[in-house]
Amino acid sequence: SQVGGGAEEGGGSATTEAVHFAFTEVVPGVYHARGASDLVVGSNAVVVVNEADVLLVDSHISPAAASALIEDLRSITDNPVRYAAAHGNQVYPPEVEIISHEATRAAIAAGRSNSGRSYELFVGSIPRRIEQLEARLDTMTDAAAHAEVEATLEAQRTYYAQLQEVVPTAPNTTLSERLTLFRGGREIQFHFFGRAHTEGDVIVYLPDDRVIITGDMLTAGLPYMGDGYVNEWVETLDRLKALDFDWIIPGHGEPYRERERIDHLQAYLQDLWDQSVVLHGQGVSAEDAAARIDLTAHADNFGGIASPGANPVAVLRIFELLDGTAN
Q: Which of 13, 41, 49, 117 is deepest in the core (most CB within 10 A)?
């Protein structure tokens, strides 16, 4: 179905509601896809509909989510998926080009896609969350609250079962710095400007459409930094800002136009890094540093900042970078 609204400041762009996803056309042929059901998807997806095919960017976190996205695409186009960048790789047939940075392929080959701190944080912790929800249910007496927790529990069980189906599947097309596709009348550029959210952040740039698709290098709020390179992130964003664009489609949150939001993230990252360096040099532990760092100067730009303190995982990662022990 078609509903009004659309992307932030999108001038009334139409949104197509499918079974699991809502597709908002940011510019002609470029859609922001957000989850619109209880299916856990993990991020935004972006659909670029070319003359004869489709590019998907971030086609989601489990085989079930990726397959649902492919099915829901039929609500906006009959063109086949020909290219995909990140996530959902195993569901595609061999003729689909999976595009990513060469560091990503190396990481998957080394088994790092299903191990490490971030894996344990986001996947390994799910059984414990399920146990906690089950324990809460046993003590709840309010019927409405019980039903809400029960629904959350069922969603977590389903999500964990879906994750067990994941087969790490490496990209079959890689780049070191830049790759360009010409699909009909559209130029599609893939850029690696440096490390930021991960060691292999690739952004997609549509120069004629004046759109950048950033993944979690940019998000609506503060991005996860547990695998990041906070010491390099600011310069990477400087290179990104040299592109000529009107629309930013981030890894999480709605598309936006305000370039100053990139400046705000850079200021936050630099402040976080600088304070961490000082405390690390004083011999303070990462845990204590996370409690002492004060980022309230950025509260106007990031609503989640209400008091001093920084994300402990982010600070631990920074200390690892300073110690030379980061993976």
A: 41
- Rounded Cα distance between 35 and 234, Å, is 30
Confidence of residue 282 (pLDDT cuts 50, 70, 90): very high
Neighbours of 28 (CB within 10 A): 9
Is residue 12 domain-shared with residue 158, that is, in the same domain?
no
Q: Which amino acid is at 30?
A: V
91 and 29 in a common domain: yes
CATH number of the domain within which 77 lies = 3.60.15.10
Q: Are 158 and 65 in contact (CB under 8 A)?
A: no
- Residue holding tokens 């981030």? 250
80 and 22 housed in the same domain: yes
User: Are the C-beta atoms of residues 310 and 290 closer than 8 Å to each other?
Assistant: yes
CB atoms within 10 A of CB 34: 16
The DSSP code for 52 is S
Structural domains in the chain (count): 3
Give which of 279, 275, 209, 265 is closest to 236, Cα–Cα: 265
Q: In whole angstroms, give the CA distance from residue 203 to residue 180.
A: 12
Question: Do 100 and 175 belong to one domain?
Answer: yes
Q: pLDDT tens for residues 157-197?
A: 988 888 888 888 889 999 999 999 999 999 999 999 999 99
* Rounded Cα gap, residues 27 and 229, in angstroms: 32
Residues 136 and 100 in one domain: no
CB 263 within 8 A of CB 273: no
Relative to beta strand 45-49, strand 30-35 is: antiparallel
Strand partners, 48: 30, 55
pTM, two decimals, is 0.88
